[in-house]
Amino acid sequence: MIELNVRFTSSDRFVIKFDDRETDALEFVAPVNDGDRAEMRWYLESYAAHYMMDVDDRRAERIEAQLPKWGESLFEAIFGDRAAARMFNDFQDSDGRGKILTIGASHPLILSLPWELLRDPRGTYLLHENPRIAIRRKFAGVGGGRSAARVKTKEQLRVLMVVSRPSDAGFLDPRAEGLALLDAIGDVGDRVAVEFLRPATLDKLIDRLEDDRLPAVDIVHFDGHGAFDPDGSLHERAKLSDRGSAMKADATAAANTGYLLFEDSEGKSALITAETLGDMLHRQRVSAIILSACQSAAVGGDDALGSVAARLTQAGMPSVLAMQYSVLAVTARQLFGKFYGFLLRGQGVGEALENARRDLYLNKERGDRPRGKERVILKVQDWFLPALYQVGNDGALFNPHPQPLSQGARGAIEENPDLLSPSTSGRGARGEGNLREVQDAGFWGRSRELWAIERAYVRGTRRITISGFGGMGKTYLAEEAGRWLLRTGMFARVCFISFADFQGVDPVSYAVSVLATVLDTNLIDGAAVTRALREQAVLVILDNLETLRSPLTPLEKGGKEENSDQALPFLRGVGGIKPCST
After folding, report:
1. What Rg do the C-alpha atoms of the chain give, in angstroms?
2. ∠ CA(243), CA(279), CA(311), 5° rounding?
3. What percent of the chain has pLDDT over 70?
4. Alpha-carbon gap, residue 262 to 555, rounded angstroms
5. CA 355/CA 99 separation, integer angstroms
6. Cα(299)–Cα(389) distance, rounded to whole angstroms?
7. Neighbouring C-alpha atoms within 13 Å toward the C-beta of 366
8. What's the rounded mean pLDDT across residues 409-420?
9. E strand or H helix at 262, and its extent?
């Protein structure tokens, strides 16, 4: 790694170090003020989210024109001194990959500046340097922070996805980032395992990280809401869910505090402070924390430790990737799809982020928006939004070209298959059920319904019925739910049983025969079915049940013929989805 270190000794003094050279203390005057940051926030959080009227277009264009100017003024504020300029030129001209520009500070004023915009007035954004120059913040360790865990390059990687969607918070597609990650895994899917934390509570997260019976987690990816509270208005609400000793006494003391929204035991919002997160994740040996939550890197006031990203760095996390402002879902999906792709090529977190950031720069389309009677394509420059807090070297987390496994390593995996769980890798559902391939157009929409199905199974529901008029897509929804729950490890197999063309007299025997084919076993009697279903989690999808409305079996109970539910007793104890018409 080649590092140029800009270390702020106070909010108005800094020194620059490169190799064995260091400048004298240099004066710093922040060229980007509160008004400038307010403009950036409006652009990223109001304009990008709502895309309102023509007059907003003109304001957005003025802000976009300011981005390179702000970047150049930041560059001049740091490298305007002759000695500093020589160091930057030497750093820029040095050979090799893994270039890092570190902004080290403890004051919120410095950490809140948009350093990602740095732009050489004689050239372009540092973003476009080749090899890439990664820009990272380093919290200066005030407050007794511990040294970060040493990051080792691994040939097998495990990512824990924490998808938090409290039922009383704004809904976002809960599958977007998970799909981007699973798709990015591609050819290395047999060496990268992805777990999904269910339910997404803080207690569940800590229990998983501390469970030494399971494989160690390398990356925690939190996909959910975040908030930065500048005036303490969230304090009273947070007290209802965050009962940690880190909670401030009152709203005044709780000003400038960052929060993540986990779920509570009932699936509602649990506001967790940066302080509590830091306490709970202290000494957890995780290589990187990825926060796509809005404002998770925001900082303000006089104490930088109110920021979630800064607090986690102080708690010993080697790398924390977070968001300075609110982030569009489409931006997060695009960013992380590329980020994980580069990470799995063997790049460090900083280098992978800069390459993903460059993709955001080149591809500014963020979906279409209504404008009067028409719909227009929204284009936004939000590539500078993600921020990296990091300590130590920006080493690769993953080795894309592993050495052949030794006999001992192969034996360990054979004895403990959970070291790399195929059901949670990126390989999809092939060979694990009889679902049809997704249609060429893909599957779109129904994100709320898919989340409702997933949440129901997490909370212990055994059977789900999808009802509606013909042609509404009930079967497609059930199949997509099966593909998703299989791919993310909730079920080990999916068995799709359709009665659309069934002409027999014993639907139970027919269903058992299809199940036996999917499980590749002989289900000779009810006991065999019970044993098979106890050995693994199986999702059974029953389609076109309306054809069984008239009794087709001679089974009777209490003098009355059983309905179609009672005629399928093997579903007891197994997850099942029944798409049927009304």
Report:
1. 27
2. 110
3. 86
4. 48
5. 13
6. 12
7. 22
8. 53
9. strand 257-263
**157-329+383-390 CATH pick, 3.30.70, 3.40.50, 1.10.760, 3.40.1130:** 3.40.50
pLDDT interval class at 142 (50, 70, 90):
very low
CB–CB of 136/388 below 8 Å? yes
Report residue 413 CA to chain centroid gap: 27
The position carrying tokens 């959910």 is: 224
Q: At 117, which amino acid appears?
A: L
Q: Which CATH code of 2.60.220.30, 3.40.47.10, 3.40.50.300, 1.20.1260.10 fits the domain covering 428-581?
A: 3.40.50.300
What is the rounded CA–CA span in Å between residue 36 and residue 54? 21
Structure tokens at 524: 């000779």
Among candidates 191, 224, 184, which has minimal Cα distance to 205? 224
Question: E strand or H helix at 209, and its extent?
Answer: helix 202-209
Contacts of 469 (CB under 8 A, 6+ apart): 581, 582
Closest to 274 (Cα-Cα) out of 322, 216, 326, 319: 322
CB 508: neighbour CB atoms within 10 A?
Answer: 16
Torsion over CA: 87, 90, 91, 92 (sign) = positive
HEC letters along 533-552 = HHHCCEEEEEECHHHHCCCC
Which amino acid is residue 456, in one-letter code? A
Residue 501, pLDDT score:
85
Tokens of 56: 């907003």
* DSSP state letters, 70-89: HHHHHHHHHH-SHHHHHHHH
- How confident is the model over 174-213, as pLDDT tens digits? 999 999 999 998 878 789 999 999 999 999 999 999 999 9
CA 391 remoteness from chain centre: 21
